[in-house]
Amino acid sequence: MERYPDSIRNAVYALMRSGVTVEELEEQFGLGHGTVYKWLYKLRADGEDVTFVKASDRLRAKVFARFDSGASVQAVLDDFKLCRSTVFRMRDEYELLASGAPPVPSGVPVSGAGKDEPTGVVRRQLSEPPKDALIKQLKVALAEKTMEADFFRSALREVKAQRQQSSTSGAMPSTGRSSR
Fold this sequence. Notes:
The protein is mainly α. It has helices spanning 6-18, 22-29, 33-45, 55-68, 73-80, 84-99, 131-168. Among the domains are: 6-45; 128-174. Helix content is 61%, strand content 0%. Helix 4 packs across helix 6. It is rod-shaped and about 115 Å long.
């Protein structure tokens, strides 16, 4: 097991405190993933409140800065080469923060969050009619169709009754077609 000099260890500790990512420490010092986290846990055991800044948090901050400058979704897509759904999710998050709405507490299920979305992401409501109005429309349409079916059912009964009367009189039943 390789022992790293105190100078490297102290430099890594200082960078951990300043908020670099795990990947940056691994690249810069050639450290293993487990080593970086072991050193992080040692700092925490010594009573320091140290956490890593995730690369995704840095990217989110850059995307938010672009939205602050008035960039469109398409511009952000072109600049960062991200998935379209990710950019729209970040835009929704940005708009929520910009509106001053209180953040959704963690652990509270959020409607519309998919299996790949982190908890706490609030999706924009699509412009759709309220469910009550939609239910009312469906009930009206069902009532109209029921009335049409009743009308045709009674019309068929009348035609059937007329045919039965004409067949008892010895005349040919009417088929609605004229013979030529």
